[in-house]
Design a protein that fits this description.
This protein has 156 residues and is mainly α. The protein is 61% helix and 0% strand.
Amino acid sequence: MAKYNIVEKKEKDAVYRTLISPKLMDELKEKILDVILIQKKYKDKGYSAKRLAEDLGTNTRYISAVVNVRFHMNYTAFVNKYRVEEAMSLLSDKRYKDLNMEDVSDIVGFANRQSFYAAFFKQNGCTPRDYKVMHMAADDPKPKKRGRKPKALKEK
């Protein structure tokens, strides 16, 4: 997996994760989902864990702990997951077939094309362009050729 410099991260046990009560974790989980998914803050390039913590009246350690424990990923991977899912729906929708990859990347909230490609490849195992080509080809089969028969066939 040398492509896009993706490396597996080692699991670390953070003490602060065990200090948060399960009830508080569940409450924060619902609030995080509401802000990130329902309010679609994942589309905001500058929406950091710090801003999320401020919006929810908590701190970044709690946000980090909840995302790690309840969603089994870090904050960036969590946000990128929704960005990539949105990109997948845009790339497979014929209405957006004229958008280039930079436009799609921008619409879904990635800061640059490189981070978009890396996150997309990590989640899907293919590039956004390959994904688009696959889905546009599946939805739009080539029409059968119509036209005149070759001269040799007409004479028979």
